[in-house]
Amino acid sequence: LKEQSHNASAHISASFISMELGDYEVAIEHLLKACSIEPSNKQYLFYLGECYYAAKKFDQAIATYQTIAKLDPDNLQNCFNLSHAYQKISKRRLSRHYLKRIKKQLRRRH
Prior knowledge:
This protein is mainly alpha-helical. It has six helices and no strands.
């Protein structure tokens, strides 16, 4: 991986392997590197948020999901992730806020 240190895809692959092995700290390191190489890649940010969530680092997960929300405010999955992360840290009002946002977006689509 040293030869591929500026290859975001290589870091993503390494993060997946680390996540499968349950080594979230190493996965987070690789995901942070991938995100620094491609900072507006929403998919990489999504993986990072999911990894923070799996590692029970809910504040970091929320910060990552909020970054995604700035890039893609209508992303329903991201609103759902924010709702769950806020629920994990007992911020039920914020959790409900994102659930209401999902409901509102779904009504507009139908």
